[in-house]
Amino acid sequence: MKEAEEQLCEAARKGDTERVKALIDSGTDVTHFDGEGLNPLMHAAKQGHAPVLTLLLSAGAPWNGLSPSGLSAGDYAMKEGHSEAFDLLLNAGIQAELILGTIARKENKSEDSGVDYLEDRVSFSEDKLMDSESKAVMMAWEKPLMEAHAKAVCSGGGHVLNVGFGMGLVDSAIQQYAPASHTIVEAHPEVYQRMLRSGWGQKENVKIVFGRWQDVLSQLETYDGIFFDTYGEYYDDLREFHQHLPTLLKPGGIYSFFNGLCGSNAFFHVVYCHLVSLELENLGYSTQLIPLPVKDCLGEQVWEGVKQRYWQLDTYYLPVCQSVEDPE
Ligand SMILES: C[S@@+](CC[C@H](N)C(=O)[O-])C[C@H]1O[C@@H](n2cnc3c(N)ncnc32)[C@H](O)[C@@H]1O
């Protein structure tokens, strides 16, 4: 006779709702991973058994467990094209993250080195900016993405704000649109020094504000276009920045941000794209996510010497946000 947990995995795979219910009612552990490294939720998701997923989720099965190959139940439902199962897991993910926000916090917590990025040394090379742990702060493969972000936030002309200079890719692209003014907020002393050395302080329409965006808000004005892309911060910081949009963004203005949320797991990324859009909607902004293929920019060699592959997906979804009440 198999253990109850193994029986639960099997019943979930077969879509046997009666058996799943009975096993749950008798106290079987819904979080169990079987010999293949899959849990009951993954088995049900793979086969598209939506009623089983509902039972398991209500019994507390975590939506975000990962198999040894780094896939979640939602990834399996997505891969197999089971839309009902996918929607159930997506909703479970959004609800859980709205309350707990566990994934993005965990992803951003840099393996608890305890080193604060802004006090850390950074190193520059032709194709990347790295922190002292060989984690990439910014990489040149993102150049086409930064150009697309610049195009979006400069589409209305006028006054543009960028938070986070990094390698200056987005700022160089913004300059091509010759905005009336171009404000750049940068908090890292070495990045700031490099900006000055490379002449950014002398550009006529550029104003550099040195400091953490959180600390320099009083020096900012209102803008027609805003781009946000920091490093070493949490999803909560992005969320906090969004709270300031109503004071920073002019009516009709465009806001965009680097959408690297959970960029190493396809399903978690979908959950976070929905979550951030929902949160922006609550603040009065609509979000359009424009798909940009990135597979071709990302050969194996790109990641040589880089500790974490912060992006592993084939498509980048570029957010374009605008106030829902703004004039067209
Ligand atoms: C990913 S890079 C930005 C890359 C930039 N978009 C580009 O095109 O090169 C993030 C930058 O944000 C800066 N940064 C991190 N935290 C910040 C904060 N709280 N306020 C302002 N800048 C910050 C980092 O020092 C870094 O230069």
TrEMBL record:
Its main location: membrane. The keyword Protease does not apply. It comes from the Eukaryota. It is a peripheral membrane protein. It is found in: Cell membrane; Cytoplasm; Nucleus. GO terms for cellular component: cytoplasm; nucleus; plasma membrane. PROSITE patterns: ANK_REP_REGION (PS50297), ANK_REPEAT (PS50088), SAM_RMT2 (PS51559). Transmembrane segments: none annotated. Residues 110-328 form the RMT2 domain. S-adenosyl-L-methionine-dependent protein-arginine N-methyltransferase that methylates the delta-nitrogen atom of arginine residues to form N5-methylarginine (type IV) in target proteins. Monomethylates ribosomal protein L12. This is Protein arginine N-methyltransferase 2. The lineage of its organism: Eukaryota, Viridiplantae, Streptophyta, Embryophyta, Tracheophyta.
